[in-house]
Write a structure and sequence with these properties.
With 112 residues, the chain is an alpha+beta fold. Helix content is 21%, strand content 34%.
């Protein structure tokens, strides 16, 4: 037995987390409104439902190498889907983050 572990605990595989930012940033949100916000140094991203402002700020700064000034979070609720008069289910909700970066810095959301 190594390090005082029982045989059951020793045989179990341990989870190795290589990047603590996994699951925070889902994708950039590309719409007309987000394009207009981009002119004012605001960028919109879909983020994980359990992420907070501090995690989003750290993820943006490490991935895009910019300085984040402000983070605003929005919860988009789920919406009903109709098929005729019946409710056939729901569109899943998500969480959105609007991030303001320092003046003069940019994030390339769409690759060239």
């Amino acid at each position: 037995m190594a390090l005082g572990l029982s045989k059951k605990e020793e045989g179990k595989k341990k989870e190795v987390v290589t990047n603590g930012l996994f699951g925070i940033l889902k994708s950039p949100c590309i719409t007309e409104k987000s394009a207009r916000l981009g002119e004012q140094n605001f960028y919109v991203f879909k983020v994980g439902t359990n992420s907070n402002k501090k995690q989003v700020k750290d993820a943006i700064e490490s991935q895009y190498k910019v300085d984040v000034e402000k983070v605003m979070m929005i919860n988009i609720p789920r919406k009903r889907k109709f098929q005729g008069r019946k409710i056939s289910g729901f569109k899943s909700g998500y969480r959105k983050a609007i991030v303001k970066v320092k003046q003069g810095q940019k994030i390339e959301v769409i690759g060239k």
